[in-house]
Amino acid sequence: MTVVNERLVSQAILERWCEKFTNCLDLDVAVVGGGPSGMLAAWKLAGRGYKVALFERKLSLGGGMWGGGMTYNFIVVQDAGRRLLDELDVPTRPYGEGYHTADAVTATTTLASKACLAGTQVFNCLSVEDVVLREEGGVKRVAGLVVNSTPVEMTGLHVDPLVVHCRAVIEATGHAVEVLKTLVRKNGVSLNTPCGGIAGEQSMWADKAEADTLENTREIFPGIWVTGMAANASFGSYRMGPIFGGMLLSGEKVAEDIAARLGAH
């Protein structure tokens, strides 16, 4: 049996993490937020050969998907969303006409695993505190992310961040739309929304919210796309609770839109 060398263990972790981060300093796509939409988009884009990294503030991926409804860990999807769960090999059971249930933990862990195995590089406990801006032909665009350690953010320490460059950013931080809020607050830019800013999330209307999630999934400012609940919060639509078909389909749509923009890899 190999003798455990504590120093070697530390060296292995440091070298591998630094190697991973260094390799992600220039990305095709940076996903901010490891909820269902962000993970689905990462899975689809990495599977097409794009260089993708996902940045999650928390220790674990999954967003609100882990807890189902009120910590009762089952989720519901409609027929359209079930197609993606089938593609992920997540078991579902029919419930009524047009609805299907899935174990929330199974769905979350499987989606996270598929995204990673497809090639997505995941950085948990890293917070995105700002974006990188560039100007091309007189038009400003998002060209990267400013990241910092979540413990640094939580303790309020004045520690400078690091930067990654990318060709596209996916804003998947959910209800909080944290990346967009920082972009608008610090730069006074106009977004591709009817009001030119972040309209804000409205109360529960699941049927309307599910349809709007797909409609609102788009490039909202040059270089940055919104998906999932971040899309609805940006455009002033409604929340939908623990029905996840629209969230998954939104992740698929944003991946298709970005792939079309970036071109064949």
Tell me what you see in this structure.
The protein is of the alpha/beta class. It has a single domain (24-262), classed as FAD/NAD(P)-binding domain, CATH 3.50.50. It has helices at residues 6-23, 36-47, 79-87, 104-117, 150-155, 178-187, 206-215, 229-235, 245-262; strands spanning 26-32, 52-56, 74-78, 93-94, 99-103, 121-124, 126-136, 139-149, 162-171, 202-204, 218-221, 224-226, 238-239. Strands 1, 2, 6, 7, 8, 9, 11 and 12 form an 8-stranded mixed β-sheet that branches. Strand 1, helix 2 and strand 2 (52-56) form a beta-alpha-beta unit. It is globular and about 55 Å long. The model has no long low-confidence stretch (mean pLDDT 96).
Summary keywords:
9 helices, FAD/NAD(P)-binding domain, 265 residues, three-stranded antiparallel β-sheet, globular, 13 strands, 27% strand, eight-stranded mixed β-sheet, alpha/beta
